[in-house]
Write a structure and sequence with these properties.
By secondary structure, this protein is of the alpha/beta class. Helix content is 30%, strand content 13%. The chain has helices at residues 12-27, 50-61, 82-91, 126-140, 158-166, 203-208, 220-223, 235-242, 246-249, 282-301, and strands at residues 39-44, 65-70, 96-101, 114-120, 147-151, 173-178, 194-197, 212-215, 257-259. Strand 5 (147-151), helix 5 and strand 6 (173-178) form a beta-alpha-beta unit. Helix 1 crosses helix 10 (282-301), helix 2 (50-61) packs across helix 10 (282-301) and helix 4 crosses helix 5. The two termini are 17 Å apart. The structure holds phosphoric acid mono(formamide)ester.
C-alpha cells in the first residue's frame, strides 16, 4: 500500500492528476463510491477541525467505513508507539490510516495500512500543501512562474515544510519571510528561493512583488519546547511588527491573493478587517480540502493499485505515478488491462 507522508511523495505529474480527480469529484453531486468495502481510520493525536472533518467527510462520501479514534482514548495513551498502533490497525483489516501526530516524521511499520499524513509535528502537512496548490492553480490558471511569499513562523510550521517541498517542483518561486527567531534552517529546505528576516527588509516591498501571500499562524504551542523561545515575538506585538495589517495589505496588488491554511488568529497574524477582502482565499482553501483529500484517499486505498504492488515503510515511496496524466476526462466505462497492476485511472476498476 502506498504511503503519503511527505509532499515529496507526489510527483508533479501526480499532483495534476490529483487536481483533475478532485475537480471531477467536486463536479459530482453524488460522488462514486470509490472506497466501498474499504475502511479508513482517523488517528488524531493533536487538535484539528479542517483536516479531521474533511478526511472524515471525504472517506464517508466515497463509501468507506470510517473509524474515528481519539488518540487519548487509545493505547497510545498507555505508551504504545505509533508504529505498533499502525500494525494493530493493519492486523484488524484497516486499509488506510489518516494520522496527525506531534512526531515530526511518521515511520509506518512493515505491516501497516496505507498511511496518509494529516500533519506531523513541525515536519510536514502534505495534503495542506496540495490543497493550497490547487487553490492557487484555480485562482491563477497556472503555477509555473508564480511568486509566492510565505510569511510567518517558518521554523515551526509543518505547512511550510510541505510547501517548500512541493511548490518549487511545480514552478512556484517561494520567498519566505519570518521574524529572525523563526527563520529556520535554510539547508533543510533548499527549494526555497529566498529566505529573509523581517527585521532586515520592507514587508511592503515583499508584498508588492508577490502574486500571492501565504500567511502562517505563529505556532505558540510549539515554542515552549523551542530553544529560541525567549527571543520570540509575543502575540500582543505580532501584528504590528510582522503581520498582515490593513496598511500593509494595500501594498498587495488587486490581482494578488491571500492564503492561510487555518486556523487564523484574526488580530494576530492578519487584521480582522481583511476577512472580507476580495483577495482572500481562506474559505476556498477549506472547501478545496474536502475534494483534494477525497482524491488522496482514492489514491491511498481506492481502486487502483500502486505499480509494483508494494511500498517500503518510511521511504516516501508513494507510487502515485499510476494516476499521472491518464485520468479520463469524465466517468467513462472502465477499461482495464489484465495483468497491468498500474491501472490508468481510479475509475477503471
Ligand atoms: N490547516 C489545518 O491543518 O487546520 P486544522 O488544524 O483545523 O486541521
Amino acid at each position: 500500500m502506498p504511503h503519503f507522508l511527505s509532499a515529496e511523495d507526489f510527483s508533479p505529474r501526480s499532483v495534476y492528476a490529483l487536481f483533475r480527480l478532485a475537480g471531477e469529484l467536486r463536479a459530482r453531486q453524488e460522488p462514486p463510491k470509490l472506497l466501498s468495502g474499504r475502511s479508513v481510520a482517523l488517528l488524531f493525536g493533536e487538535p484539528s477541525t479542517r483536516t479531521r472533518l474533511s478526511f472524515s467527510l471525504a472517506a464517508t462520501r466515497l463509501g468507506a467505513e470510517v473509524l474515528t479514534l481519539d488518540e487519548r482514548l487509545t493505547s497510545r495513551a498507555k505508551g504504545e508507539t505509533l508504529a505498533d498502533t499502525l500494525e494493530v490497525l493493519a492486523l484488524l483489516g484497516v486499509d488506510v490510516a489518516v494520522v496527525r501526530t506531534s512526531e515530526d516524521v511518521i515511520r509506518p511499520p512493515a505491516l501497516s495500512p496505507s498511511v496518509v499524513s494529516a500533519g506531523s509535528g513541525t515536519g510536514e502537512h502534505p495534503t495542506q500543501a496540495l490543497l493550497d496548490a490547487w487553490t492557487l492553480y484555480e485562482a491563477f490558471g497556472r503555477l509555473e512562474g508564480l511568486r509566492l511569499l510565505v510569511l510567518g513562523d517558518l521554523r515551526h510550521s509543518r505547512v511550510f515544510g510541505s510547501h517548500a517541498r512541493l511548490l518549487p517542483r511545480l514552478g512556484v518561486r517561494i520567498t519566505a519571510a519570518a521574524p529572525r527567531a523563526w527563520l529556520g534552517r535554510e539547508e533543510d529546505l533548499p527549494g526555497v528561493a529566498e529566505r529573509v528576516a523581517l527585521e532586515d527588509v520592507s514587508l511592503e516591498d515583499l508584498l508588492a512583488s508577490a502574486d500571492a501571500v501565504l500567511v502562517l499562524r505563529p505556532q505558540w504551542e510549539r515554542h515552549a519546547h523551542s530553544a529560541d523561545a525567549p527571543a520570540s515575538p509575543t502575540p500582543a506585538s505580532y501584528l504590528e511588527r510582522y503581520g498582515l495589517t490593513k496598511a500593509r495589505a494595500r501594498a498587495l496588488r488587486p490581482e494578488s491573493r491571500i492564503l492561510h491554511p487555518g486556523p487564523v488568529t484574526w488580530g494576530v497574524e492578519i487584521d480582522p478587517s481583511l476577512r472580507e477582502d476580495p483577495r482572500i482565499l481562506v474559505r476556498r482553501q477549506v472547501e478545496n480540502g474536502l475534494y483534494v483529500r477525497m482524491a488522496v484517499l482514492v489514491a491511498a486505498g481506492g481502486n487502483f493499485e500502486p505499480c509494483g504492488g508494494g511500498a517500503v515503510a518510511g521511504e516516501g515511496n508513494a507510487d502515485v505515478e499510476a494516476l499521472g496524466g491518464d485520468l479520463p476526462p469524465s466517468f467513462e466505462p472502465p477499461v482495464r488491462e489484465e495483468g497491468n497492476r498500474a491501472f490508468s485511472s481510479p475509475f477503471h476498476r
